[in-house]
């Protein structure tokens, strides 16, 4: 099939796309692309087509494509994280906090607000990986004894 694509047969690449779109979409979704999964997969197919000259004939197409999908997903997720501002994260934290009753001491309310701001600033300084760990464990109160199973790649069980 790759030889047909390299020979300039456009229908051959369309067949590859049809054959691998489902698994590519599942991989992008599993890796965190969310609502961007279709865009990630489309971009991955474009990149794969442009890189076919470097594709080795002794390789299988599916794992090669899925590595491109994984890279595109990672890039998309990173870009989304960069677009999320500190103010947006702080607003999300504030919305998640219970409303302080009017009867509460204003000094206590001010202190809590300052602590939330300091927490958001401290989280911003952490690497993405460490920020996720702290968020999962302390803000979402997830149990560290049973971490989520990492995605091991296509075909993994």
From TrEMBL:
Q: Which organism is it from?
A: Streptomyces haneummycinicus
Q: What is this protein called?
A: RNA polymerase sigma factor
* One Pfam entry name: Sigma70_r2
Which keywords annotate this record?
DNA-binding, Sigma factor, Transcription, Transcription regulation
InterPro entries recorded for this chain? RNA_pol_sigma-70-like, RNA_pol_sigma-70_dom, RNA_pol_sigma70_ECF_CS, RNA_pol_sigma70_r2, RNA_pol_sigma_r2, RNA_pol_sigma_r3/r4-like, WH-like_DNA-bd_sf
**What Gene3D superfamilies is this protein classified in?**
1.10.1740.10, Winged helix-like DNA-binding domain superfamily/Winged helix DNA-binding domain
What's an example GO BP annotation here?
DNA-templated transcription initiation
Say which family it is in. Belongs to the sigma-70 factor family. ECF subfamily.
What GO molecular functions are on record for this protein?
A: DNA binding; sigma factor activity
Residue stretches making up the RNA polymerase sigma-70 region domain: 20-82
